[in-house]
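Shipment paperwork, digital attachment
Item: protein structure file
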Amino acid sequence: MGNEIQLISDGDGLAVIGNATDVERFLASEGLPSKDLGVHRLKAVFGTGAAVAQAGSEIAASSGRWVKLTKESAERVKKFGLMDSKTPGISHAMIGKPGSIKKWLQIEKGAGSFLTNPARLAGVAGIMTQSSMQQTMDEITDYLATIDEKVDDVLRAQKDAVLSRMIGMDLVIEETMTIREQVGRVSDVTWSKVQAAPTTIAETQAYALRQLDALAEKLENRPKIGDLAAKVKEVEPKVREWLAVLARCFQLQDAIAVLELDRVLDAHPDQLDQHRLGLRAARQNRLDLISRSTERLVARMNAAAEAANSKVLLHPTKSPVVVQSSNHVVTGVHDFHARLGIESGRQSSETRRWVEAAAEARDRALVTGANGVGAAKNLGNETLDRARTTTGRLASGIAERVRRRNEGGDEEERDAQG
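Attachment content:
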């Protein structure tokens, strides 16, 4: 294949296949971090025979790297003009660095062995899906390491039967993934250990989502800031725990999907592409379900923060508690979304701190007079307005009585003189 390399994208990642040296040069020239794709496993796609032996030798001579497509990396590869293939959701291009030309150029002719063989292209797509899921699994591991409680401690502290079953299945899946790494495939015996896992994990996910919904409901209809502060403070650590459980569930579901693709690649390679698409659809459904539940929680926390903001000067000790806890929960949810790859259309709530609210009230008070500045430091907007109105009415009443008294005195004086 010379110094030609092939680019294959499924929207989530980019496979770069070719001679190892050329692949490394391309990735270095474009500044793209990558990891091994494992193209050697594609031999299972072709069965046996002379043609297969040739395909196997081509695969053995090729190097494959996988790049996670972020906004930045997607922009870098867009210039190579990847085109849609007959494999659903897959685009491709062949590029080269002919002669002394320093830039990589798209090659219009001679599409290359991987791109002209539908089965091989489907095989690459399946392995890319595995790489994408394993990347998410790694990011979830990093996420769980950053929260205050370790997920294992959170899970083992639970007494629920549903979580207990999931913990047991967790250990089995980890063992199966370890065997896969050592052997390079998933045998019938290995697969039999985890066949019941999807049901157990789905039960745990549903349970965790119900717990989050229940926590969101606790924040409804609590107009008193004192009650709201107590509930938000109670909810905050529990949300973090249930997000950890959800993250672990999603991680295990991705692990099962990786194992499934290995089984299909090994036993029914002709069904690999259909199975890949089915797994992607099911995975997106799970993401949508999790997104809806967590966004409802975010909406409740934002509403609580807004309620606290509106009364922060009336409740200088309780309101900041609500705002701080709300911010922690919302930030945690958005971090959770980012690790799972959930596109969130909302930014974290920009709630105001005590000093910001006081400064805003002070600025408004400056419009009505210097006396309002001192009052704004200790009184909320509503109290300040009421105090100002009451003072005005009192002053007007006193002035009116003084005026009448003076007028009455003037009349008496005129009568005496008459």
